[in-house]
Write a structure and sequence with these properties.
This protein is mostly helical and 128 residues long. Helix content is 66%, strand content 0%.
Length: 128
């Protein structure tokens, strides 16, 4: 699903996050269905399965020295980064027809992924 994004999107970060959260159930169904579909590229399946295993694994990275807020957030940064990377790779490297076949949210997958990209951009801008 490679296409040029029209930035900046005319939506606030708060509104974008609200819409992204509404699409999470559809995203989870999409990922599950992609793993089962024979047409999904194997490396996409490996990213999805590998990320799922890492997230539920008891061997997940844990920095015990960071037990108190705000340092406790560091324990989740690797999970969030991996999830975002997997979503990005999946949306950009899976054929559009396959994505559209399994996407069941009221907002199109292109619009929803634009919102995800906006949040990633906002985070990078805030971080730097």
């Amino acid at each position: 699903m490679k296409r040029n994004k029209a930035y900046p999107l005319d939506v606030s970060t708060k509104e974008a996050l609200k819409e992204i959260v509404k699409g999470i159930p559809s995203l989870l169904k999409l990922l599950f269905r992609l793993v089962k579909d024979k047409e999904t590229p194997i490396y996409i399946k490996l990213w999805i399965i590998g990320t799922a295993i890492y997230i539920v694994s008891p061997l997940n990275l844990s920095f015990r020295a960071f037990k108190h807020f705000p340092f406790k957030i560091i324990n989740y940064v690797d999970d969030i980064a991996l999830i975002l990377l997997t979503i990005q790779k999946t949306l950009y490297n899976t054929p559009k027809e396959i994505l559209e076949k399994y996407w069941d949210h009221s907002m199109s997958i292109e619009e929803w992924s634009d919102l995800v990209f906006k949040i990633q951009s906002d985070i990078k801008t805030f971080h730097h």
